[in-house]
Amino acid sequence: MPWSNQSGGGGGGGPWGRGGGNGGPWGTGGNGGGKTPPDLEDLLRRGQDRLRGVMPGGSLGGGRSILIVASLAVGVWLLTGFYRVEPYQVGIETIFGRYVGSKGEGLRYNFPYPIGGVVKPNVGQVNSIQVGYRAGVGAQARGRDLPEESLMLTGDENIVDLDFEVQWRVNPLKASDYVFNLQNPEGTIKAIAESAMREVVGRRNIQAILTNEQSSIAQEVKEITQAALDEYGAGVRIEVVQLVSVTPPPEVRPAFIDVNAAQQDAERLQNEAKTYASREVPQARGKAAQIVQAAEAYRTQATAEATGQAARFQQVFESYKTSPAVSRERIFLETMERVFGSVNKVIIDQSGGGTGAGAAAGVLPVLPLTELGGRGTSGQQAGGAAR
To answer: pTM to 2 decimals?
Structure first.
C-alpha cells in the first residue's frame, strides 16, 4: 500500500499513523478494528499548547496577550467593511439601519456588520412588467392571456382587450428611495400602471383606441404612472409603456372588423374629396380672378375713352366759339367723310362736257350703277394688267 512504511505483517497504520491497528485520523490504535470518536478534550488541550507556544511568555493568562488577541480580532472585523461598487450599481450605506449616504463606482468602506450595512441596487438593468398577458419562455412557448387584467371599459361603454408592457429601472439619483420606500417594486409598479391605463382608456371611445390614439394613450399612461411613483417617493424611472395588443373582445370582434373597414373607406373617400377640392378650388379662384381683372381692364378702357371723347368735344366747342363758320364747315366735311367713306359711289357728269358722242347721255338712271361701277373697276384693273 502507498500509505504504509512497513512491509511486514501486523497491518498498516494507514495515512494517519504507524504501527498496528486501524487508529484512523482521531486515535493511535483501537480494538476490534473500528473507528473511535474524536476526543474533544484532547483537541482543546492540543490547541492551547500550540497557542502558548505562539504567545510571549507561553501563557494565556496575561492581560497583554488578551489585548493582542482582541486587537487582532477587531482589526479583522474592521477589514470586513471594505466593499466594491460596480459601474451599474449604487452603494447605499447605513449605520444602525439609518441611511447615511450613497456611493458611486469603486472600492468603498463602511462600518461592518452589525454597526453598518451596504445595499447595492442595480441601476443599469431595465426591468419589464407585463399587464394583461404573460409571455412564454422559449421560442416555441405560447403566451398566456389574463382577461382579468386586460379587459377594460371605454368611455362609450364598450369593452376592449388591451395588453401592454411597462419597462422601468431604478433611478440612480434616487436609489435610496427605491431601497427604503418600496417593499414590492414589481407589484407596486404593476398596480399603478394598470390603474393609469384603465383611467386613460375610460376617457376615450373604442374607435379612437383601436385606430389612431394608441401612441398618445401609451405616453399619457407613462406620465401618470411616473407622477404617481414620484409622489410615493419610489425612486423608479419609467422608460417606456408599449401597447402590445389592442383588440375588441372575441365575441364582437367580427363586427368591429367590419366597422373598422367602413371607417377606412370613409377616410379614403374623404381624402379623395379633399384632393378634388384642392385641385378644383384653385382653378375656380383663378378663373374668377381672371374675370375680375378683365372687367377692371374694360372699365379702365371705357373710362379712358369717355374721358378722351369728352376732352375732344370740349376742344371742338372751344374752337367753335372762336370761329363758328369754320367750325361748322369742318364738322360738315368730317361728317360727310365718315358717311361716304364706307359706301360705293358713282359720279355722273350731267354737264355733257365729256369727249365723244354721247359720253354721258347713253347712261340711263335705271341702270344698276353699283354693279356697273364694280364691273368697271374690275375691267379697268384687268385691262391695266393686260396692257
So the answer is: 0.51
